[in-house]
Amino acid sequence: MDYDVKDISLAQSGKLRIEWAEQRMPVLRLIRQRFAKQKPLKGVTLAACLHVTTETANLAITLKAGGAKVYLCASNPLSTQDDVAASLVKHHRIPVFAVKGENNKTYYQHIFACLDARPQITMDDGADLVSTVHKTRRDQIPDIMAGTEETTTGVVRLKAMAAHGVLAFPVIAVNDANTKHFFDNRYGTGQSTFDGIVRGTNILFAGRAVVVCGYGWCGRGFAMRAAGSGARVIVVEVDPLRALEAAMDGYQVMPIAEAAKIGDVFCTLTGDCHVIREEHFKVMKDGAIVCNSGHFDIEIDKAALNKLTRSKREMRPMVVQHVLKSGRRITLLAEGRLVNLALAEGHPPSVMDMSFANQALSAEFVRKSHKKLEKKVYPVPRDIDERIAALKLKAMGIRIDKLTPEQKEYLASWQVGT
Ligand SMILES: NC(=O)c1ccc[n+]([C@@H]2O[C@H](COP(=O)([O-])OP(=O)(O)OC[C@H]3O[C@@H](n4cnc5c(N)ncnc54)[C@H](O)[C@@H]3O)[C@@H](O)[C@H]2O)c1
């Protein structure tokens, strides 16, 4: 079996951590048990370009239990957990091509290695697999039934491809399922971004001015966790509705040009480019810490920071302090890449349980229904989303009410008023 991982001898630690995650993924576990019996993906080759974490390992094992031949590569050069990659290869015979810290060239070689398997389903987190197929492997397009996409940025890219008429096969926007972005983006990114900053730096949040750029699903989650730890949260937005929501949630809202002068910690979660730029670095306080939790490392203008820099030192792993020509120090975390995955472990398994249940059931849906789909971006079928919510509640031991016949009738009527 061909694979490329950092060190296969790390497999035992990966095995235990994969099991630890599995114990917190009851919905995916139920799907795995059914997949093992019914084999809905029998004979399908599936390439997944996802963060190689313990949770992703459980998804890959589930897809394999369903009969798929699974190939896995990383969706970010810094997010791979090398012990997990080793265990997938050693204990589960799943070919993994991912090494934490791989350079850009190796990152794409790993994507190509997965594409060499000629997948019929692609599973992406950021659309790198789909865009690579479209740019360089067009001969493989006829093999592909459909793809699935995990994150906001990927869905934005794919919708742009569909709008330009270049998307060559259907893709299911897993990110847009309610049981994905309500929970994964908000509570998963919220907690793990906080975790990444704290693990990486060991700073105290209480009393700090924390600037949250972007008040979308991820930004809301991180703002909530930062505020909960005693920070003074400042939100930067471009959307009036979201800015208003942040203001009414109790945060200060202001443009980045003003926030730059007063922030102690900055985190971008926008999916946009160059949110923090040269003019902002120039006015930041001595000691400011800057990081990103949006998908790509484009939210912080690293070239501009380097241009202003006199010298830099890695003070702790992936914590690089830039001494500017002005003498002020600005610290950049994780090279401006996803701080929650580079400095911590990404989202906790109990939230990925729902995201990856959506992935597994979307793969099954694609297998069954791809002939009926056009070259468009589709939402996850509503019944899948609702089933996952119901299963998650059940697994959490939470029961809810049912409408009485009288309530059903009332809610469907219009005659009864004041
Ligand atoms: N770190 C992770 O593990 C993780 C998890 C899920 C999503 N993501 C990524 O995080 C990013 C945000 O995802 P989301 O689901 O919150 O998206 P979203 O669309 O809900 O929110 C993004 C917000 O950023 C705002 N924004 C855009 N440009 C801005 C700018 N220049 N300045 C200030 N605000 C700006 C938008 O108005 C919007 O409110 C995406 O790149 C997504 O792929 C990361």
Structure description:
This protein is α/β, with parallel strands linked by helices. The chain has helices at residues 11-22, 26-38, 54-65, 82-92, 104-115, 128-136, 152-163, 178-201, 217-228, 240-248, 256-262, 278-283, 302-308, 339-342, 349-369, 382-395, 405-411; strands at 45-50, 69-74, 96-97, 121-124, 146-149, 171-173, 209-213, 232-236, 252-253, 265-268, 288-292, 309-316, 319-324, 329-333, 377-379. 46% of the residues lie in helices and 16% in strands. An eight-stranded mixed beta sheet has the order 9-8-7-10-11-14-13-12, sandwiched between helices. It has a seven-stranded parallel beta sheet with strand order 3-2-1-4-5-6-15, sandwiched between helices. The longest helix is centred in the middle third of the chain and has 24 residues, at 178-201. The model has no long low-confidence stretch (mean pLDDT 97). Bound molecules: nicotinamide-adenine-dinucleotide. Nicotinamide-adenine-dinucleotide (NAD) binds next to helix 7, helix 8, helix 9 and helix 14.
Strand content: 15-25%
- Number of beta-strand segments: 15
Question: Which ligands accompany this protein?
Answer: nicotinamide-adenine-dinucleotide
Unreliable stretches: none
Oligomer: single chain
Question: How does the helix and strand content classify structurally?
Answer: alpha/beta
Strands ordered across the widest β-sheet: 9-8-7-10-11-14-13-12
Name the average pLDDT. 97
Q: Total helix count?
A: 17
Alpha-carbon Rg, integer: 22 Å
Could you give the distance between the termini? 71 Å
Assign a percent range to the helix content: 40-55%
Q: Please outline the major beta sheet.
A: 8 strands, mixed
